[in-house]
Amino acid sequence: MHGRVKLKSTAQQEEEKRKEREKKLKAFVSTRDAVLKKRSAGEQDEEALHLTQLLLSSNPDIATLWNYRREVLLHLETLREKDEVQKLYECELHFIEVCLKVNPKSYGCWHHRTWVNTRLPRPDWTRELGLCDRCLGLDERNFHCWDYRRTVVKESGVSVEQDLEFTERLIGSNFSNYSSWHYRSTLLPRLRPPPPPDSAPDTSPAPSASPQVHSHRVCEEQLLKEYELAHNAFFTDPNDQSAWFYYRWLLGRAEREEMISCVYISREGERVSVAFSKPVHALAVGLMLVLDGQPQRVEWRCAHPRFRHSPVWLCDLPPGSISDMSNEHNLTVHWTEKHTHRDCALYTGCAESWCRDSATDQELFRSELSVEKSSVLQAELESCNQLLELEPQNKWCLLTIILLMRALDPLGHEKETLAHFQSLKEVDPMRSSYYSDLCSKFLIENTILKMEYAEVRVFSLSNKNLTTLCHLDQLLLVTHINLSSNQLVRLPPQFAMLQCLEVLEADDNAIESLEGLYHLPKLEEVSLKNNHICKLSDLESLASCIKLARLDLRGNPVHKTANIESEISQLLPLVTALSL
C-alpha cells in the first residue's frame, strides 16, 4: 500500500470545487462593485482599465464594462501625445485578442475592436486581416468575425478579386463552408456587373419590354464558371447543402423592375384597377390618374383592407365620367415616384378595356436565358440526372433538377417536374408540406402561361392537389376560375384582387375561410360544395359582393345550423338560388 497516491473521494473533490467557485465569485463581485463605484464617481484612470481588464478577461460579454473602457480611453486620449495614443490602443487590441480566446464569438469584443481601430492614429488593417484569417481558420462559421472582416476589407482596400480568391480558398478546403458560399454571392455582382442595356436616343422602352432587371446579379460569363464550381462541390459531397443553396441562388430569377403591369377600366361601376409588378403603397408613391387630359381627384384603396402594400390598387371615377357607351376615353396612370406611366383607351361601345404586359412576354416565371446559357443549363441538367442515378434518395439533387427544368422550359418539363415532387415527398417526408406548396406555385405559374397562350380569361386548376394560392395579381382579368377537388383550406385576402371574377367553382376542398371573397363587383355565382364552412359568420364577406345571385353550400357543416336558410337570406338578400 505504501507509495500509492491517495485519491480524494468524489465528495471531497466537489467540496473543493465549490469553495474555489465561491472564492472566484467573491473576487469577481468585489471587483465589479469597485468598477461600478468608480464609474458612478466619474473616475476615468488607469486603475479603471486594470479593474475592467480583470473582469473582462474571465467574462468578455459584459457590455457595460466595454462601455466604461471606451469612456476611460477617450479621456486618456485627450491627455496623451499621438504616439502614446497609438501605443494605448495597440495595447487595447492585444487585450481584445486575449478576450477573444475566451469567447471567439463575443459581440462585445468584436464591436470594441471595430471601435478601437477607428480611434487608432495609424491602424494596421493588414494585421487585422490576418487576425480574421486566423479566426476563420479555427471556426469558418464565426459570423462575428465575418462581419468584422467586411469592415476590415472596406478600410484596407482589398480588391473584389482578392476577396473572391479568399472565398475560393476556403471553399476548396471545405465545401461545407456555407459562410464562404454566401459571401461569394455578395462579391460576384461587384466583380463583373452586367453591362448596361443599350439605349438609343429619343426612344423609350415598349410597354411589353421584359421587366426583368439584372442589378445585383452575375454576368453570364462568370455565371457559367460558378456553375462549374458548385457542380464540383455537390458531386464531391452530394448530401452537403451549402453548395446546393449556392447553386439555387445562381439559378434564381432576376429581380423584376418596379412598373405598372396592368390597367383595367370598366364602365360598370366606373372603376379603375391598377396592377404593379411588386406590392406598393399607392398612397405613398405618388399615383396620379388622368382622364382625357384632365387630372382626377380619386381615392386609391387596396383590394382588401388587410393590406397596406398590395400589387393591385383600385379607385372609383367621379360619377358620369365614363358611363356613356357612345363616348371614347383615354386614361393614363402616372407613377411619379418611378417616373413611369401606363395608358389605356376605352373605345366607343366597349364596356371595359385594359392594357397589360403578358406573363409570357415578360418571361415572368423563368430566368432570361441566352442560347449559350441554355445549352450549359441543359448540360447541368443531364449531369444532375446522372448524379440522381447514383444518389436516388438525394433531396437536393431532386430539387435542383426541378429548378433547372423550370429555368429551361417550365411547360415542356411539367410532367417530369410533378414526378420529381412526388419523389421529394417520399425521400423527405418532414418537408412534404413545403414541397406541396412549391408544386402548387409552379402549377399555377404554368396554368397562367397556358391561359395566356390560349388568350382566354378562364383559369382552371381542378384536381391538381393544390395546397396554396399565389400570383393572384396575375388573375386580375379572369372571369371564371375552377379550383375544385384540391386541398385548399382558405381563400386568402389576396383573392380580392380578382376584380373581373364572375364565377367561382371551389368544390371538394377543405375550405374554412372565405376572407378573400370581398368586394368582388362582378361575382355572380359561387359553388363551395363539400368544404369545411362551419359557421354563418364564415359567409359574412360574401355580403360585400353586390351581384352574387347563386350560392351552393351543399356538403358543408354550416347546413346543420338552426334556421340556416332564413339566416343566409337575411345575410345575403340578393342571393336568389341557394343550395344547402
Write structural notes for this entry:
With 580 residues, the chain is of the alpha/beta class. The protein folds into five domains: 153 residues, Alpha Horseshoe (Serine Threonine Protein Phosphatase 5, Tetratricopeptide repeat), CATH 1.25.40.120; 55 residues, no CATH class; 100 residues, Immunoglobulin-like; 82 residues, no CATH class; 125 residues, Leucine-rich repeat, LRR (right-handed beta-alpha superhelix) (Alpha-Beta Horseshoe). The protein is built from 16 helices and 17 strands. The strands form four sheets. A six-stranded parallel sheet has the order 12-13-14-15-16-17. Strands 7-8-4-3-11 form a five-stranded antiparallel sheet, with no helix packed on it. A four-stranded antiparallel sheet has the order 6-5-9-10, with no helix packed on it. A hairpin with a 2-residue loop joins strand 5 and strand 6. The longest helix is centred in the N-terminal third of the chain and has 31 residues. It is elongated. The relative contact order is 0.05. About 3% of the residues have low confidence.
Fold topology:
Elements: H1 10-40, H2 46-58, H3 63-77, H4 82-102, H5 107-119, H6 125-138, H7 143-156, H8 160-173, H9 178-191, E1 212-213, H10 220-236, H11 241-251, E2 255-256, E3 260-266, E4 271-280, E5 287-291, E6 294-296, E7 301-302, E8 310-316, E9 329-335, E10 340-346, E11 352-356, H12 371-390, H13 395-408, H14 414-427, H15 432-454, E12 458-460, E13 480-482, E14 503-505, E15 525-527, E16 550-552, H16 564-571, E17 577-579
EC number: 2.5.1.60
Biased composition (Basic and acidic residues): 14-23
Domain Rab geranylgeranyltransferase alpha subunit insert-domain: 260-359
